[in-house]
Amino acid sequence: MAQTEKKGGLLRKSSASKKPLKEKVVLMYDEVFTTEDPSKSNPRFWEELFLMKVNLEYLEGKLEALDGEELMKIKDNINCLFQHCIQALGEEHPIRVVNALQTLCALIRGVHQKNKSTSGFDIINMLVGFDKAELCMKNLMESLDSLLCAEGSESLKSLCLKLLLCLVTVTDNISQNTILEYVMINSIFEAILQILSSPLSRREHGYDAVVLLALLVNYRKYESVNPYIVKLSIVDDEATLNGMGLVIAQALSEYNRQYKDKEEEHQSGFFSALTNMVGSMFIADADEKISVQTNEAILLALYEAVHLNRNFITVLAQSHPEMGLMTTPTSPVPTTPVTPLGTTPPSSDVISSAELPLDADVQTSNLLITFLKYSSIVMQDTKDEHRLHSGKLCLIILTCIAEDQYANAFLHDDNMNFRVNLHRMPMRHRKKAADKNLPCRPLVCAVLDLMVEFIVTHMMKEFPMDLYVRCIQIVHKLLCYQKKCRVRLHYTWRELWSALINLLKFLMSNETVLLAKHNIFTLALMVVNLFNMFITYGDTFLPTPSSYDELYYEIIRMHQNFDNLYSMVLRISTNAGQWKEPASKVTHALVNIRAIINHFNPKIESYAAVNHISQLSEDQVLEVVRSNYDTLTLKLQDGLDQYERYSEQHKEAAFFKELVRSISINVRKNLAFNTLSQELLLKEFSTIS
């Protein structure tokens, strides 16, 4: 018997001796694409259409094949199809509802594709007609809201979210998507919250719900009052906020796990052996080998939650009971690869066993630890555009956290100690840290470690100035809290001081190259003022008097770098030019550091001469420092513990606009290829009751 093949809506005998036969649904689509009303010849046309399995490919292809003028001729039928889809959403038979949702996806995408051409017709008019738009869209949003909140089918809920994601992302710039005005007026915010607060719904649909919310919050956020921003900022329900935190933590954990798997696979392979053999020649290539595509969509959701909702800050440090001590997921983890910025959700709130080594004690796992670990991975390589955006967004999130009083309280809490295993970039001059020897410390230590790691590893030709500025600002904000609240943090401050001095050394060594692109004096001033902060207020927040002595020791030991910096800024500030003013600010900021160097260096030289010692030990230098504090005179510098608070609208609007565009494009691509397969959806509704 001849095999039957199906392609593009055609049924064709393999012998190819006869003319191809079209599926019935394709014939019905063809009737819609005429100027005649299809229900005239068949009164049951619309009823029958939604019993047929949707052929998305054919329907979208048909829409794309028409030019704007041809499409306008069949506008009445398109309006009619759109309206009947909305009516079908209220049907009892789930198959009709599934088919109506699928058809709506195809219609919205197809008509939006046509809008990219020069025809310029209005999308809303094309889909529903101006006269009926308000009522139709109200009915559509109410139906979707009912389906999302109902006790019924999970497949229907999933498809509703896919339709909404399709609706939101059909244009690259979501703020130009006028159809979203109806999503603003007829809010589905409460339905999204309901999904996040219910463990079952969250497991199935949490990821799509969180991404959808993040995108809706960004619709015309600077131009008008966005109800989703207003509502998200006042959510105080613990179950809902924890649910959102769980979804974000799971997605970031999945990324961390994939990276760890690739890293282990890479380290045990041939490439690792080759790298060991020839030193660091191939380190950059090796990093590329183990890169995992970043997920800016989930990171945007975390940012919006942290930035807009102060109650969400509490979620960051909470252990996740559902992640608990279980070591296996409650349902199978998808085997398909995670697409960039995609909408494929992790299938469970339970962290997989591969993620458990995050800490020696599983119970200490929380969203902030997972986020810090994620940040340590994506911030390693900022050459890739997605990673650069991810790295910048990670630092913006940390900036918001560092400014929050409550966040600082738990970051610095001595009773909340964690072992956080951050990823460190492979470098020639240091060994890989042993994960098992990590101490348990307050979370702020991990944040500072992350900042130090970034400072040390990104001194390169393509200097990421913006990220460095953010990094130094985060350290400064944490120090301001410690000074204000007199928190004496037991941290290895020497590592930070050393990193900062090396950064100054790098800026001086590459003055000509860097000045062609950046104002390096802004960054130099910030670094010098961090030292001024330690010098002026260090006795209020450094853990011991000996820590303060060590600060002076480091400044004296590395005095050549500060001397060179002073010479450089003095040279530039005495010449007329664009850098005169910023350079002179650094000159003034160096006054106390130079006073320390000029005060102690002669004393140390004198001590060495009297005791006939050619090279003093650290203890001997410290002894000189301690015995000569009383004759040191320092100037009081104002404003060291002040900072400008983060403001998105004034400084970051362009970044977020570009980021949301990138996310919209990628979510749309993912929807187009992975999520609208009907076979899985229809398994649930194999019979019509």
From TrEMBL:
Q: Does the keyword Transmembrane helix apply?
A: yes
Q: Keywords of this protein's UniProt record, alphabetized? A: Membrane, Transmembrane, Transmembrane helix
Q: Where's the Armadillo-like helical domain?
A: 435-671
Compartmental location = Membrane
An example Pfam family from this entry, by short name, is: ARMH3_C
A GO cellular component entry from the record: cytosol
**Chief place where the protein resides:** membrane
Q: Would you tell me the protein name for this molecule?
A: ARMD3 protein
Q: Which organism is it from?
A: Anseranas semipalmata
Gene name, per UniProt, is Armh3
